[in-house]
């Protein structure tokens, strides 16, 4: 049976795989649309996004299981992981999709997760 850590990693890797599948043009367009939706006022993007909701649920399971380093709550870990995944996706867009987001993102993700888990 998969551990909570395995589920979190696989879930985040699915985001990179989906991003690669839809391509950098559509990913860039989605970023632009999401940012413009936040400009006029309060942004509810993370509250409505299925990916974010499911990731928060996994992280709450992880917090209950005590898998995070001291001081890491599910909410703090969500911010770090969301920022890491979104940052990698933005860098991929800026590079016009010239590197494998799955390979590079996966390697980066391993580094990030190592600093979060006990």
**Low-pLDDT segments, ≥5 res:** none
Average of the residue pLDDT scores: 94
End-to-end C-alpha gap: 20 Å
Largest β-sheet summary: none
Q: Could you tell me the strand content as a percent range?
A: under 5%
Rg for CA atoms? 15 Å
Number of strands: 0
> What is the SS-derived class?
mainly alpha
SSE run: HHHHH
Compute the number of helices.
Answer: 5
Specify the helix fraction band: over 70%
Shape: globular
Short description:
This protein is mostly helical. The protein has helices at 4-38, 45-48, 50-65, 74-94, 101-114. The chain is built from five helices and no strands.
Features:
118 residues; 0% strand; globular
Task: Walk me through this protein's architecture.
With 118 residues, this protein is mostly helical. The chain is 76% helix and 0% strand. The chain is built from five helices and no strands. It has helices spanning 4-38, 45-48, 50-65, 74-94, 101-114. It is globular, with a radius of gyration of 15 Å. It starts with a helix and ends with a helix. The model has no long low-confidence stretch (mean pLDDT 94).
């Amino acid at each position: 049976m998969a551990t909570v850590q395995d589920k979190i990693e696989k879930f985040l890797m699915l985001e990179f795989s989906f991003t690669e599948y839809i391509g950098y043009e559509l990913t860039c367009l989605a970023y632009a649309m999401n940012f413009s939706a936040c400009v006029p006022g309060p942004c509810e993007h993370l509250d409505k996004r299925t990916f974010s909701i499911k990731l928060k649920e996994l992280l709450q399971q992880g917090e209950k299981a005590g898998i995070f380093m001291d001081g890491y709550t599910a909410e703090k870990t969500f911010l770090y992981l969301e920022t890491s995944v979104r940052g990698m996706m933005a860098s991929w867009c800026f590079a016009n999709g010239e590197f494998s987001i799955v390979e590079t993102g996966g390697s980066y993700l391993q580094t990030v997760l190592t600093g979060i888990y006990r």
